[in-house]
Amino acid sequence: MSFFADIFFVEVREDGLVSLSVRANQNRVDEFVLSWSDIAPALDDAPLPGWMGSSRFSLKRCDQFGQLRIAGSEKSSVYRFSRHEIDKLHAQLYALQDQVDAEAQLADQQTVVSPVHESRKAEPVVSQPVDVDALVGQLSIMMQQQMERLRKDLGAMKAVETVKIIEKAVPVEVEVPVMVEPEPDPFSPSGIFIPSRLGQGLEGTVHKKQTTTNSALGAAEKLRKLKEKK
Amino acid sequence: MPVGLDVGTMNLVAARQNGDETEISRLRDAFLDLPMTSKKLLKLSGTDFVEREEELLIIGDAAMEMANMFGREARRPLSKGLVSSQDMDALEVVGYMIQTLLGEPQTEDEICYYSIPAAPIDNLDRDVIYHKRLFERVITDCGYDPVAGNEAMAIIFSECADEDFSGIAISFGSGMTNIALANLSVECMTFSVEIGGDWIDKGAGQSVGRTGAQMCSIKEQGIDLLDPQGREQEALSFYYKELIEYAINAVSKEFKRRQMQMTITKPLPLVVSGGTSQAGNFLAFFEQVLEKKKKRLPFEISEVRQAADPLNAVAQGLLIQALQEDD
User: Fold this and answer.
1) Band of the pLDDT at A63, cuts 50, 70, 90?
2) Is the pLDDT confidence value at A118 over 60?
3) A3 has a pLDDT exceeding 60
4) Contact residues, A window 127-156, toward B, CB-based 8 Å cutoff
């Protein structure tokens, strides 16, 4: 099924009119064609409470939400969105201002008596029926081909190995260096770099606080006896 | 004689037995780098410093004091209880600090028990392997035979001798909070949570528009958790409460998660320790919070008490363990 990601879509048409699409819900988009003079009165960075705009196009902005009203020849459409979305529409329309050129102004004078209002429904994508059996068949053929190829490769590798063994069987006197595997360093787990001789190059004086506290010998003795009991 | 070394986010503490006394050496785990031009000033003020290539380093408590004077923040080699592998600069300094604290070994193969935190249960991406291995190497380089010991278990060894080393220890550190449950000296459960004193300072600071360092200073000047004065202290007490609740909930949750593996038959003492537990009336505040949560704990608590010396308890507990090896 189609999905409308944006709530509003605005663009200036070649004839200088502004096309505005509003996502009414996930199944419907309403399209309007408006003149710039209809839109301009609604654009204000510091909106007053209540409706602002022309009789054809107006916006209402409250703290949490906003409303959009577009009047047609027969009926008016009122939409309610979050304040954020209405602000986004306001910004998009504001940005169009520069694009509305002289030609648009001309078209503006000719104006459209009533805005074109058209609703479109999202059409579900028609998918081809999937033949599962045919797909499984194709996959098994591909797997068989792949297995066959692997078997051949393995056979070739074994053949090379045999040749190598025959070659090794020829008695040749060579000095084989004894390779001693280094013992794993228990202080260096693989993949971790641990620096050594840290701080050995520094020289100077540091003041450390020194005190005395209760002897640890009593507790150490108790611990030793407990361990002996066990 | 063996030595116990507490490697903490805020302090490095070494404990060594000398006759009938335990000698404690402590160094604040912080440093400040200054340009060579500051040398004269430092000499005049009698501040100890270390030279490195083209800079001067002030290490320990003096770093915190001088940082305020220069309008800077002292650098901390450890963050959230663990050392960072990325900051080689800081690693070199922490290596030097440990070398200074331990000094030369007094006998051949002298054992050094050093503290490591348990892996945090609230951040499974962090483990303690690098931290453990790095300090193992630093201590080896100092000429000692290193043995790693859990931080909270060390508190059990230093504070629960009268209960045959059975109890629950909560070490409220600067970088994290470590928890251990032991029965007859056997470790039953150890884990950590990734919040501690630094988290309190940062959170409370953000709430009242102060820096973490400023809140730390307010905290160290003295705060009564049962009677906080002013916005800052009140914010600190809110965060203290949150930290304690978080730790108690974690104990309950972890115990239930692992209960198949252990059986606790008698009430256990609960010991709180660590630098963060030094705030005024911490014990009473902790008990207030615990009272509301007690019913949820799956075991009985015989007594809640504070470590006799919260800053040094971990080092002392490690020394007790090290002394066993020496017998």
Assistant:
1) confident
2) no
3) no
4) none
In this structure, CATH architecture of domain B160-306: 2-Layer Sandwich (3.30)
Q: Residues B275-286: what's their mean pLDDT? A: 93
How big is the A-B interface in CB pairs under 8 Å?
153
Structure tokens, B185:
């000296």
- In a mutational test of the B interface, the residue from A197, A200, A205, A208 whose CB has the highest number of chain B CBs within 10 Å is A208
CB proximity under 8 Å: A 178-207 to B: 187-189, 192-207
- pLDDT tens-digit series, residues B35-58: 888 888 888 888 888 888 778 889
Contacts of A48 (CB under 8 A, 6+ apart): none
pLDDT digits over A126-185, tens only?
445 567 777 888 888 888 888 888 888 888 777 665 545 444 444 445 554 545 444 444
Residues of chain B with CATH 3.30.420.40: 3-35+50-154+312-326, 160-306
State whether A199 and B24 contact (CB < 8 Å): no
What residue numbers bound the domain in which A30 lies?
A: 8-121
Q: Please indicate, yes or no, if residue A154 is contained in any of the structural domains.
A: no
The four Cα atoms A145, A146, A147, A148 give a dihedral, to 10 degrees, of 50
Asked if residue A46 is part of any domain, the answer here is yes
Q: Which of A6-20, A151-165, B184-198, B207-221 has the highest mean pLDDT?
A: B184-198
Q: Is residue A183 part of a domain?
A: no
CATH fourth-level superfamily of B3-35+50-154+312-326 = ATPase, nucleotide binding domain (3.30.420.40)
Residue A15 maps to a domain: yes
What percent of chain B is predicted at pLDDT more than 70? 97
In angstroms, the Cα distances linking A42 to A37, A59, A60, B112, B239 are 10, 6, 9, 78, 50
Tell me: the pLDDT tens digits for A72-91?
777 788 888 888 888 888 88
Task: Give residues with Cβ within 8 angstroms of A21, minimum separation 6.
Answer: A8, A9, A10, A29, A30, A31, A32
Residues of chain A with C-beta less than 8 angstroms from the C-beta of B38? none
Interface test with A, best of B51, B65, B127, B138 (most A CBs within 10 A): B138
pTM across the whole model: 0.63
